[in-house]
Every structure is written in C-alpha cells, then in structure tokens.
Design a protein that fits this description.
six-stranded parallel beta sheet, 14 helices, 3 domains, Rossmann fold, about 350 residues, about 15% strand, six-stranded mixed beta sheet, single chain, alpha/beta, 434 Repressor (Amino-terminal Domain)
Length: about 350
C-alpha cells in the first residue's frame, strides 16, 4: 500500500512556474518577467527564447502577479447600453477578439440606460484597475466621461467629442448609409417615406434622425412629420410605432428604422395586420445584426460593422497606452446599405406601370 502511494506521488506532474520557463529558456527569472510583460528594452533574441519556452511548457502565467509587477492590469473595459439587443453581444465578441490579439482581457458592463448602473459600471472598472475603457453607450456617457477623466483612465467614446486628454471619439458616418437607403427607396418609386427613431434622449438617435431628414431633403422628398415616430430601439417599440402609422388615414409606403430590432418589430406588426413586406410596405433597418439576414423576408438594412467599432476602439486605446499620447485622432466608422428582400416598388407605382 505504501509503495502504491509513493508511485502515485511520483507520477504527479511537476508544477510549471516561472522558474521552469527561466530554466528552459536559459535566462533569469527577471528576464522572463520582463519579456512576458513586453518590456521593450528586453533583447529580442532573449524574448523569443522566453516565448518559445512558454509555448513548449504550456505555461499559464499568473495574470494578477504580472499586473502587480508591471503596474498594468492588461484589462480593457467595455461598457455597453444593453445586453438584450443582439448588436451588443456581437460587438462584445469582436471587441474581445481584438483585445486578446493584443494581449488584453476584457471586463464587460451594461448600463441599461440607467444613471445608477452607470455609476456601478464606472466603480467596477476602476476597482479592477482597467488600463482603458471603451464606452459604447451611444449618447449617455457624460457622467462616465467625468469619472474616468478624474482617474486619468484612457477612454474612447462613440458619437462624443471629448476635449480632455486621454480620450478619443469614434464618429459614425450615419449620413452615407442612410442616404443610400433613402435614394434606394426613391429609386424604387417611393415618395411617402416614414422613419421610426430611437429614443431621442440619445445622441445617436438624434444623429440618425437628423441624417434621415437631411437625406430626404437632398433627394427632393418632403418629410412628413407625422410619419416620423419616436421609438425605443426595441422590438416592442417597433411594433407599437408601426401600429400608430397603420392607424393613420394616409400611410407611408416605406419606413426606415433607427435600428434592426425596431424593424423586426415593424415586421411583426405588419404580419399581425395581414400585410406583407415588401408588397404592402418597404422596410429598411439599421445596424445589420446577424439576425437581420435570417428574418423572413431577409431585412434590407444599413450596416454599421461591429468589427470596425471594435478594431478602432481598441486601436485608439492602445495609442494612449503604448505611446502615452494624450490625444488620438478621431476615427470615422463607415456605414453602407445592404439590400436584401424587404424593399420593392410601392403599390401605386406597380398599378401605374400596369
């Protein structure tokens, strides 16, 4: 019995630690630590030997210990508006992919558009000593801006114009994609075009509405104010807004929406009313979430790529962190129309042609 216990004990694999890596690489423990913390003064050949040893031994470093040594958490915070909107999980996935590629982990928080939750998000980020934060709340970031600025944490925002050091802005080019959508509808023969906005307390919703009005005017089409209805960027508000439009004596023949969730809610309202897309109403969303391609029929929408947002937000944070630059150049996020099957000629136009 004693023998078997001894055999079992001797069969237990030795613990792989930083000393093991140093021995395999033929360098000091200090060199391993500096190489793994990517200190730029480490000799390139020695760093290569360290990383080769790490890979051979399948060494998993203690990230908390590394953070104590380097003074950096290697954590990037990501604050989003809500998790229930599919746009944000897609953004989180892309953000994590980019962050991990650059050697960072991510800490996620959701505000749900509430001031109290914003305070909790900021506190959690600061308690975990995040190296930088991307605030993807699309227009409710004033409090967060002040809180992170006070602790000198680099921050990148969407649709904001920060004027303080260590902050950057990602400006979404709403006009290009919305203009393509308006001209696409006009080209099909539509002149009665409605718009369901997002909650107008948000800058992004205001910007999308303003872009729609400008693009309609540029295309020579009148904007009927009664056909511009405020929504909440949710399925339910899209359904409710469309029901309001359907109750009007004169209705639009096409509707653009401030996001895809709203547009999917519109599709539901039309289905309940016994109407079809695009035969009875043409429909365009915004965001191009993954689900948009799989609605029936597939949704025509304006794409604002999560990958672009993730790449450029992480890139802006790294500019601050790696070079110590107080101000990073503003980045423009492009938009473009993706035509699928929810747009067609209006009924009046079809009758006229016949």
């Amino acid at each position: 019995m004693k023998r078997s216990r001894k055999s079992a004990k001797s069969a237990t694999p030795a613990k792989i630690d930083i000393r093991s890596v140093a021995e395999r690489a033929g360098v000091s423990i200090a060199t391993v630590s500096r190489a793994m913390n990517r200190v730029p003064t480490v000799d390139a050949e020695l760093a290569e030997r360290v990383w080769a040893a790490v890979k051979e031994l399948n060494y998993l470093p203690n990230t908390q210990a590394r953070a104590l040594v380097s003074g950096k958490s290697r954590l990037l915070g990501l604050i989003v508006s809500e998790i229930t909107n599919p746009f944000f999980p897609e953004l989180i996935q892309e953000f994590e992919n980019v962050a991990v590629r650059h050697g960072y982990e991510i800490l996620i928080a959701s505000t749900n558009y509430e001031r109290k939750k914003m305070e909790e998000c900021a506190r959690r980020m600061l308690e975990r000593k995040v190296d930088g934060v991307a605030v993807m709340t699309f227009g409710i970031e004033d409090f967060l801006f002040e809180r992170f600025a006070a602790d000198k944490v680099p921050v990148v925002f969407v649709d904001a114009a920060p004027e303080r050091p260590m902050s950057s802005a990602l400006a979404v080019d709403y006009r290009v994609g919305i203009d393509e959508g308006v001209r696409h509808l006009v080209g099909l023969g539509h002149t009665k075009i409605g718009f369901i906005t997002g909650p107008l307390r948000l800058r992004s919703a205001q910007a999308r509405k303003a872009a729609f009005v400008e693009c309609m005017q540029s295309a020579g089409v009148n904007v009927e104010s009664v056909w511009v209805v405020e929504g909440e960027h949710t399925l339910e508000s899209g359904r409710d807004a469309m029901e309001r439009l359907l109750a009007m004596k004169e209705r639009p023949t096409a509707v653009m929406c401030s996001n895809d969730m709203t547009a999917i809610g519109v599709q539901h309202a039309l289905f309940e009313a016994g109407l079809k897309v695009p035969e009875d109403l043409s429909l365009i969303g915004f965001d191009d979430i993954h689900l948009a391609e799989y609605t029936i029929p597939p949704l025509t929408t304006v794409r604002m790529a999560c990958k672009d947002l993730a790449e450029r937000s992480v890139g802006a944070l790294l500019v601050h962190l790696k070079s110590g630059v107080a101000e990073a150049a503003a980045e423009m996020i492009p938009t473009r129309l993706i035509v699928r099957q929810t747009t067609g000629a209006p009924k009046e136009g079809k009758k006229a042609r016949r």
